[in-house]
Amino acid sequence: MRKFKILFVSPASYFSRSSVALLQQHPDLFQQPYDVQSNLLIEHKLVHHTGFSHAMSQLGHHVATVLPNIQTLQKQWAQENSVSYSETTWGTEILLAQIESIRPEIIYFQDYPPLPFAVWKNLKQTNPYIKKIIVHRGFPGYFDTLGFVDLLMVATRHLVTQYANYGIPARLLYHYFDETVLDSIQLLPVSYPITFVGSSGYSFGAGHATRYWLLKELLECTPIEMWLEETPPSKEATSKNPLLSGKLFIANSITKFLSWIPFPIRQMLINSKWIPKKYRDLFNNSQYHSWRIGLKSNLKINLKEPEKPLMDLFPRQCHLPVFGLDYYRILGSSQISFNCHTDAALGDVGNMRMFEATGMGSCLLTDTGKNMSDLFDVDSEVVTYSSREEALEKIKFLLEHESKRRDIATAGHQRTLRDHTVLKRCEQIDEWLQEII
Question: Which of helix, strand or coil describes residue 253?
Fold first, then answer.
């Protein structure tokens, strides 16, 4: 089997907030050489998906990792490599210089390429050593451009279908647990009866409404503790950008109109080839931004948009967000890890928290989905709910039946380490690479 030189390009979505604890430990972090900075960020798991590089290296590939949106890190690389750049286009210029320096055969973009479309579309022509460009993403969108990649991998079955409706072949690659976390954190003594760690949905619009209102009810009725990401919406940024404001207005208007149409007919309209592509894209973008259509109505929760941060409403139970190894420590210290997918999942399950919680040995209580049997055995490896009433009942049961809860947690942990590790996913990626090259 062929071995490849791969450049892994992975954004750091929450880096400005996740780096605070690391900077307290290493106040001179951004004065260090590039390799020192990069290795520290990866070791502390402050960037999602960096386990990919380690796993692909285990399979014999040579992998370099770039974190393109960490400005201080990227500019340090530019300084060490005598690369000049403009302050307005530093991201593109430095990343292109890194590509030229590394000269990869394959570029793997975790999420959409952080380059202008005209640039990344022509990378193989401008850099003949590049043989393939591949992308993995967990959300819809970019239907007019992602058809140009050589391999598109998506995290849900619904996304495979959605991209296929645009003539884009996509392969299903679920998220995973980075098992190298266990080299840094052993399974921990249980400290918390039940936790939720992640975004509450506040400031994310109607797409997170189900999660927000369910979490609010759990805070009212259970001993749950939460570590929440609740970034206030930036009204100022939107108001200063008339184009953005206008697009959001149009998307929301379309969403409200479509919400009155039965769901199967909506999907037919959205995917119909006779509707001009720009309008189909607008429909899909309105789904992505607002998601009032296709909400998981089986939970029967008030689906108003989130109104106030849960941290303000429940200050004793809600804590500031945690990232990296601290995030995993909370999961590993939880008897029960609660999970609720966004409404954008449209009935599919498989978000990162499912694999991370089970990987850390916690008993996972998650909303059910039509593909659950692909991932875990219900009631023996994970516990599921399909309504808020059932969620509350299952929480009560699990807290009262310690032996059963521990058995499920152990079985879920073993299943994840067997089937849902980063190494397992990379073995699948490697098979696909051998096919297309």
Answer: helix
Task: Report which DSSP code applies to 382.
Answer: B
With respect to residue 192, please indicate whether it lies within any of the assigned structural domains: yes
Structural domain includes residue 299: no
Please check whether residue 44 lies inside any domain of the structure.
yes
Domain around 277: 236-294
Domain contains 45: yes
C-alpha span between 49 and 429 (Å, rounded): 14
Q: What is the DSSP string of 280-310?
A: HHHHHHHHHHT--TT--GGG----SPP-S-H
**Residues 284 and 357 reside in one and the same domain:** no
- Contact between 133 and 149 under an 8 Å Cβ cutoff? The reply is yes
Cα separation of 43 and 36, whole Å? 10
Question: pLDDT (tens digit, 9 = 90+) per residue, 118-166?
Answer: 999 999 999 999 999 999 999 889 999 999 999 999 999 999 999 999 9
In this prediction, residue 406 carries a pLDDT of: 98
As given in the structure block, the two tokens for residue 301 are 């929760």
- Whether 323 and 46 have beta carbons less than 8 Å apart is answered as yes
Q: What type of residue sits at position 214?
A: L
Quote the DSSP letter at residue 128.
T
Last residue of a domain, one of 255, 273, 294: 294
Q: Which amino acid is at 173?
A: L
Tokens 């209102």 correspond to 213
Q: How far is CA 314 from the centre of its chain?
A: 26
Look at the chain and report how many structural domains it folds into.
3
Q: State whether 192 and 308 are in the same domain.
A: yes
Nearest to 94 by CA among 111, 80, 77: 77
- CB count in 10 Å sphere of residue 126: 11
Q: What is the CATH number of the domain that holds 315?
A: 3.40.50.2000
Strand order in the sheet with 383-385: 318-319, 225-229, 192-199, 334-339, 363-367, 383-385
Residue from 83, 89, 64 nearest 9 by CA = 64
**pTM of the entire predicted model:** 0.84
CB 219 within 8 A of CB 314: yes
